[in-house]
Amino acid sequence: MTKEYKTINEIKGPLLFVEKTEPVGFSELVEIRTEKGEVKRGQVLDTSNEVVVVQVFEGTGGLGKESSVKFTGDVIKMPLSPDIIGRVLSGSGQPKDGGPPIVPDVEREIAGAAINPAAREKPRAFIQTGISTIDGTNTLVRGQKLPIFSGAGLPHNDVALQIARQAKALGEAESFAVVFCAMGITNEEAQHFMADFERTGALERAVIFLNLADDPAVERLLTPRLGLTTAEYLAFDLDMHVLVIYTDMTNYCEAMRQMGAAREEVPGRRGYPGYMYTDLAIQYERAGIITGKKGSITQFPILTMPGDDITHPIPDLSGYITEGQLIVSRELHRKGIYPPIDIRPSLSRLMNSGIGAGHTREDHRAVSDQLYAYYAEGCDLRGLVAIVGKEALSERDRLVLEFADAFEQKFVNQGRDEDRSIFDTLDIGWNLLQALPETMLTRIDDHLIKKYHPRYRKKE
Amino acid sequence: MEVGTGKVHRVAGPVVQATGLKSHMYDLVLVGEEGLMSEVIGISGDKHVIQVYEDTAGVKPGEPVKETGAPLVAQLGPGILTSIYDGIQRPLPQLIEASGNFISRGLFVDGIDHKKKWEFTPVVKKGDKVEPGQTIGTVQEQLLIKHKIMMPPDKRGTIKEIHSGNFTVEDTICVLEDGTELPMIQYWPVRKARPSRIKQAPTIPLRTGQRVIDGFFSLAKGGTAAIPGGFGTGKTVMQQTLSKWSDVDIVVYVGCGERGNEMADLLHEFPELVDPRTDRPLMERSIVFANTSNMPVAAREASIYTGITTAEYYRDMGYDVMLTADSTSRWAEAMRELSSRLEEMPGEEGYPAYLGARLADFYERSGRVTTLEGTEGSISIVGAVSPPGGDFTEPVTQNTLRITKVFWALDSKLTQRRHFPSINWLDSYSLYDLALEPWFMENVSPDWNKNKRRAMEILQENAELEEIVMLVGSDALPEDQQLTLEVARMIINFWLAQSAFHPVDTFCPYKKQFDLLKAILEFRDRAFDALARGVPTDVILGTPSKDALAKVRLVEDYEPELARVAAQMESEFKTMS
Ligand SMILES: Nc1ncnc2c1ncn2[C@@H]1O[C@H](COP(=O)(O)OP(=O)(O)OP(=O)(O)O)[C@@H](O)[C@H]1O
Ligand SMILES: [Mg+2]
After folding, report:
1. Which residue(s) pair with A88 in the sheet?
2. Where are the beta strands (DSSP E) in B257-413?
């Protein structure tokens, strides 16, 4: 029924220009067969009576004017069934673990329709990650998208793995299902993830998509879409709480820039396409909870900031879409602190709905604010001390400076396998605040001080 | 006009070219077999360029394009309040009914319910002459909001028949001598401003209950404010806080290309939040447009216009309306995306050359006006701006600042210190300042402006001193300057800082704002007196009442507490040596 065409007029980078076709639908899935019989997949980017532009996911290597093109009349879909759990797939969704193809119960369009905002449930279930800088000061809730902004050579993968291992809802034994999407990471990094998943048994409740550094760049544009379509199936069909980790978003964006250049589009900031915000939003917004559904999707995108520059378009646009960000700091890493999360530029915007009485503890917000305030002030004072020396500081300033040092050592720093409860985290915070006079605790209501300050608690 | 059908010629994302159409610019057309809602945005040769409000996957060349003969209109009438719409005024709850939890395509849903009956009470009678914009009757739309049914802005005549009773918005409720039959519903093209008679001077403040705004950089009723800031600096929280507490009758919240979870948050909170002025849920006087970042860009582009059109409609009834747009940068980006697909000549940073003009047209639709009918209504606009990299020199921020009169500059340094609202007190400004001073003197205190200026001066001096401190440390400063640093710290931490999430402090009445600042300034005067008497600074700075002052703002019934702290302060300073 569907015709094959041998009317490729031009091949440019990842693009094919096909002429003299019957009408072809926008976004249609395309199959291209090389003379040698190899089949590649692509998607229609532009369609008119004169010419159809196709982007080829597996690269245009081996294609020529004699290759034949088949328009399938359908958009790209992901085959899904419960058997997908535990599988390792390629960046374009083909089995990579030697197992059989997925026999689908359902097939879902990977483009992903927008969740109706009125159908969304407000995320408010606290997730305990066991990491103080997250739970205490940048609390994560179910249904949130919280990226890790990092830099080359920093231990962001360890942080992501620790989160995947330890994350749980308070009072619930069930752990998260994990969808892991690798985009353009090295084989070694991928091995690191896989080994950890196997060691901890996480693989049994995970679906893995691997597009590695030597796989075609255009394929990366598919990987998160396949992963998120799978996540939606697990969450909203199978009622699972799903954690999606994808790394590295920077490689995904580079692929997008490459495509834009190939299409000779007017570039936006620093050469990235003008629609990058919208494209990223379409991925990141596939997190959340739907009213009446049991499952949820929580996202942890990881991206390395080119040149550690947070104003670079990739972290910048991500920060404008996600519900906060965790910043991995080179400076803390150099000091030997793990996890080197700098809480000052980090933020969890959904924190408020997941903390406090009934969620964590009533003093959570106040303690967090107070820790922040003095840690930030202490860090500023370090700059001053470098110039004028400690002696020039007032007594108050000296206390704040010492607080900041202790904060890094005791609160931020913890073991790679150390799983702190939220109550431990808050108590560590109080113990640090105890070093300051009570009158300096201006962000904490008196009744909370009376109830939780170690000085009063000891008396009990 | 006779409506015809053309054919799709080319599809590239949200932009479609079609042949064989006679539609005019901005006319609505329905694209493809599914009839996707679309708008004509360009005409070139025999081709119409069309932006599609929905995803175009699967649309093929040759598919039909149906004309409608009319531009994109808003449906105006009873039933708008409490609604939650997408960018083209489709009610989102009805879309769930029609297509489930994910938004699918080709759905048309009326902006207001055409079946529901409302009780219409006429206020004119047979034989009366009626003018454009004149109220001909009322409907109790919400418990506290009376909806005026007005003559369309382009119609006048003599009443031949007028009915009273229960009607749908489509039923004829009035017939004019010339035979015109009027239903309650009006259709208004969203890109065209609804007319009013005169724009009035901005002499009344919009009370927001936020100290840094009311106290330092106040917005006038009918005024415009821009709130630019990098990600996470507090634009959304501020806009939601303003929607909750400002003394306006109607709130229009346009979520333009932002987060789904944020909209969910708002949609859960507004119906529960009881408005202290009326004791009724805030939602009863709100209209929400939620076209999130992952929803089609063309509808995002339209959302600002549908939002402002509904705002104008309630203004025309004589209400004070506030429209917040979060974020106008996403709107500008939608324009940029569509413009680049049209292959227009790009201006600065790829934005279309008409960016400034579009922004100006939008903000121009604000104002305190005398309506066609002669009553007074207002639209105040607060627009969030999301500059890339937090850099205010970019085109959207710059073009916006050329138009808006109030600038609340969000500062990521303050955010990092968790100082909220992170509005920088040195960079921000309000050009309504002078015009509003008389109102504050008359209605709050004759000392309002004096105290404000004193506080500003202290902060200014503080900024200069801080530079010195960075070089030599604070201990090296003379004692009076150390005191100034401390007083500035008090103004910043006890007065300018205000948590949107604290049950009491989220809203601060004018009187409380004034009293708190006055108390800090009194501390300052006493401190300098004591210093002149020879009291050492560390003794002054150790005053217990100073720390007690920090917490007064957190107390609902603050006056007795403030009086107690003031008395304590007085006695402490008396005995100080
Ligand atoms: N007035 C405030 N009081 C307390 N906390 C605040 C206040 N304003 C902002 N915050 C904190 O800052 C966080 C980020 O604020 P918000 O979401 O408003 O940022 P934004 O400027 O809208 O960011 P984006 O541009 O990414 O949307 C909030 O989640 C909240 O924790
Ligand atoms: Mg925001």
Report:
1. A208
2. 274-275, 280-281, 286-291, 320-326, 367-370, 376-385, 406-407
pLDDT at B2 (0 to 100) = 60
* Rounded distance between C-alpha atoms, residue A341 and residue A324, angstroms: 13
Give the pLDDT mean for B207-234: 96
Out of B60, B230, B255, closest to residue A25 by CB: B60
The encoded tokens of residue B100 equal 């489930």
Cβ-nearest to A118 among B9, B62, B96: B96
Region label for A179, one of left (φ > 0), alpha (ψ between -120 and 50) or beta (otherwise): beta
Amino acid at B138: T
User: Is some CB atom of chain B closer than 8 A to the CB atom of A343?
Assistant: no
The Cα–Cα gap between B468 and B472 comes to 6
Helix (H) or strand (E) holding B261: helix B260-272
Largest CA distance in chain B: 92
| DSSP per position, A195-207 | HHHHHTTGGGGEE
**B239, pLDDT greater than 80:** yes
Which ligand has an atom closest to residue A139 CA? 1
Tell me the Cα Rg of chain A.
Answer: 25
Q: Is some CB atom of chain B closer than 8 A to the CB atom of A274?
A: yes
A-chain residues near B87 (CB < 8 A) = none
Tell me the average pLDDT across B322-348.
89
Strands of the sheet with A140-141, listed across from one edge: A140-141, A126-128, A168-169
- State pLDDT tens for residues B81-139: 999 999 999 999 999 999 899 998 888 899 999 999 999 999 999 999 999 999 999 99
Token pair of B58 as six digits: 């699967």
Query: Residue B1 pLDDT > 60, yes or no?
Result: no
The angle formed by the CA atoms of residues B273, B274 and B278, to the nearest 5 degrees, is: 150
Question: Could you say which residues of chain A have pLDDT below 50?
Answer: none
Question: If you write DSSP's letter for every residue of A83-140 in order, what string do you get?
Answer: GGTT-EEETTS-B-SS-PPP--SEEEESS-PPBPGGGEEPP--EEE-S-HHHHTTS-E
A212 touches chain B (CB under 8 A): no
- Distance (Å, rounded) from C-alpha A127 to C-alpha A145? 12
Residue B240, helix vs strand vs coil: helix
CB contact under 8 A, B231 and A319: yes
C-alpha B436: how far from chain center: 20
Using the beta-carbon criterion (under 8 Å), do B58 and A26 form an inter-chain contact?
Answer: yes
**Closest-lying ligand to the alpha carbon of A347?**
1
Please give the Cα distance from B96 to B87 (Å, whole number). Answer: 16
B338 has a pLDDT exceeding 90:
no
User: Is the backbone of residue B291 left (phi > 0), alpha (psi -120 to 50) or beta?
Assistant: beta
Distance to chain A for B12, nearest Cα, Å: 5
Q: How far apart are CA A190 and CA A89, in angstroms?
A: 13
Q: In the A/B pair of chains, how many CB contacts fall below 8 A?
A: 222
Whether ipTM > 0.95 holds is: no
Give backbone dihedrals phi and psi of A105, rounded to 5 degrees, phi first.
Answer: -80, -40
User: Burial level of A406, CB count in 10 A (0-12/13-18/19+)?
Assistant: middle
Sequence-ordered list of residues with C-beta below 8 angstroms from that of A163, at least 6 positions apart, any chain? A129, A131, A134, A243, A300
Contact B528, B576 (CB under 8 A): no
Burial of A455 (0-12, 13-18, 19+ CB in 10 A): exposed
Q: Which of residues 376-395 of B touch A (CB under 8 A)?
A: 386, 388-391
Partner-chain contact A274 B340, CB within 8 Å = yes
Q: In this structure, how many other beta carbons lie within 10 angstroms of the beta carbon of residue B506?
A: 15
Q: What is the pLDDT of residues B436-467, one digit of tens each?
A: 999 999 999 999 999 999 999 999 999 999 98
Q: Report the residue of chain A nearest B297, measured CA to CA.
A: A278
